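Much of our argument rests on the idea that a fold can be written as discrete symbols. Part of our work consisted of pairing the sequence of a single chain with a tokenised description of its backbone. The amino acid sequence and the backbone structure tokens for this protein are reproduced below.
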Amino acid sequence: MMRTFGRGSPRLSRTIGALAVTGALGASLISGSAAAEPSVVAFGACPEGSVSADREVRCAVVSVPMDYTRPDGPRIDLTVSRIAATGERRGTIFANPGGPGADALDYWARRTDALPAELGAEFDRVAVQPRGLRWATSLTCATGAEGDEVSLGGGDRDAIKKACDASQPGYLDTITTENTARDMDAVRAALGLERIDFLGTSYGTYLGAVYASLFPERVDRMVLDSNVHPGWVWNEEFAQQQVAGKRRLDDLFAWIADHDAEYHLGDTALQVYRNWVRLVSDQGGGWYANLTPPPAKVSDLPGQLPEPLAEIARDGVNGTVEQAGKVQNLVRTLLSGGGSARVPLVGATAVATYTRSYWPTFAKAMAEANTDPANVARLLAIEGATAGDPTGRFVFSAITCNENAVEPRPELLASAVATIASGGNAMDARADLVRSGMSCGSWRPVTEPVPISGAGLRTRPLLLQSRYDALTKYEGGPALAQAVNGSLITVDGGDHGTFGRANPAVDNAVLTYLRTGEVTIDRADQAPLG
């Protein structure tokens, strides 16, 4: 799931416009699926730079209708990657890594060493590059002779559509989850497959659920990992990220505090938080640094108190700490003129909140910046780990604005401004900005999301969901499981994406399911760290 923290801005109003886009998701079209035919797809070399080397990946191009209501109209190209099973083949598993707007071609090759070896031995692994992205027919929306790309988020819908239609008439309106699912089925048919297995992560869970709802007879087994809530598409999904993100930040600060002997950033979550706020502010982060403090511990209190008195004092301190934090946040907002910037520590923190394996590296990077403010190389490297191609941002905006089913609430702009102006939690403000609908501006949906259903599936899907996932909040797991009549495994911790993290309980459960269709557990511990 794509999630962004916005860009810098000298004025509060411009800051709000930038931060309203968060991340890093008409009537239903024809519902028939293409019948399987003998494969006529010729696989060969992959586009330069698209896949990891030495992984035996082969690629092919498949042509599909741009608009499935006009099957004889213009066509677009999709690139498909495949890695053949190395042993006795059980089936073919398609994958989508999320986004919307994430490249898919390299999904299997990039994760070969992380996924169980049995998966590669028993399954052909296929990934379809989604429409609109590079290595497919890219969505291009340029203006004027200079060829400058328009901003797809928060702009004037008519101007955006005019720019996109200038080079690709009608293409923008076809960038939807439903059409992406239909593309996947067209590839299935082109490969001569009667049915497929599917692995989807983050937004890929929603794509998989849409595919299962449209083509249940073409699905064998389906694994959905870190799930989109089908009732939150899309404004509420991204607003809930802010709530989940703050909870996970407190976990991160507490973990760093537990390892203070190594990182020297404070031995309580509150102390680490204060160092984090200072560093973000010093880097020019403005009101990005405005967070509600984590709860104080007895060790945060001055002096030594008997245990009963210490607990009473701690509860009182928690109230005063939060109020003091708001005052400090307000001062910071006033001094920055309401502006903020995406500074290195903020970008690295965004990655660390949803990937626990980054915590030691992040803590070391923060410690380096604490010792030497100019030493931010490691922070920048962490931030860059999730960077994608610019076409990903276009597809993200196109899908989420084309099919957003949650009505905008512009009155919440005032609430966001009030939160910022009073020194309140930046994540609360960002949640209100998302719910206001500013990320799409005047761009109204062109279609309605496909109703999600598990009716007609021969095997119940398997869903995996971390309890404290910072990108797809936990409630999405039970909600999507209910919608598709699936079996849910709750995984402790908060990793976004739980399969392929060297967690034997989860990995073995997925392999058992893919082989037998059976789910033998309903919870698992989080993956080991290190």
The longest helix spans residues 307-335.
